[in-house]
Amino acid sequence: MGSIISKLRKKRSNVEILEEIDKEITSLEKFHSEDQQRGRRLIGRLVLYSLILYVAAAITFYLLYFPDDWGPRVVYSTPLILFPGVVWFIRKGLNILFVKRSTRSMVKLAELKKKRRKTLDEVMERETYKTAKEILERFDPELKVIQ
User: Fold this and answer.
1) pLDDT tens-place string over residues 89-136
2) For the segment 30-84, what is each residue's pLDDT rounded down to a tens digit?
3) Phi–psi pair at 140, nearest 5 degrees
4) What is the C-alpha to C-alpha distance for residues 138 and 18, in angstroms, rounded to an integer?
5) Longest dimension (CA), the chain
6) E-strand spans in the chain?
7) Packing angle, helices 14-64 and 70-126, rounded to 10
């Protein structure tokens, strides 16, 4: 029964396939640019807020809790010494996360462009000259650069 239904189903045309690929490429490019902006904003805010918090904590520590002896001074100032390192590691971790995400989307984008190129090659082989020319003018970005 399934084989009968599958034979009755209409095969998608090359134009439909290319339109779908173009939609996916556009959405991936949009996601990639938005994701890069989101990463820059997040890291920038992390650095800004941590700097403000660090300065406020240092001033509070100096004015209110600054002991006279060296032993308690070292113990109380340890968080102030370690805080920039913690912020730096968080920043590096976020940067690695966004770079991996960006690389993953670029790999998908390259695969889609390869699929589009393959479909365009099939169009050149199978379609008539007039329809192939129309399809290539519509979907081939390299052709637009040459003209």
Assistant:
1) 999 999 999 999 999 999 999 999 999 999 888 888 888 888 888 888
2) 999 999 999 999 999 999 999 999 999 999 988 888 888 888 888 888 999 999 9
3) -100, 105
4) 10
5) 90
6) none
7) 170
Say if CB 144 and CB 57 are below 8 A apart. no
User: With b meaning 16 or more CB within 10 Å and e meaning fewer, what string describes 3-15?
Assistant: eeeeeeeeeeebb
Residue 116 in contact with residue 22, Cβ under 8 Å? yes
| Token pair of 62 as six digits | 């100096």
Whole-number Cα distances in Å, 122 to 72, 74, 115, 142: 76, 72, 11, 16
**In whole angstroms, how far apart are CA 17 and each of 3, 20, 24, 42, 106?**
23, 5, 11, 37, 20
Is the entire prediction scored with pTM above 0.70?
yes
Cα-based distances in Å from 18 to 1, 3, 112, 122, 127: 31, 27, 10, 11, 14
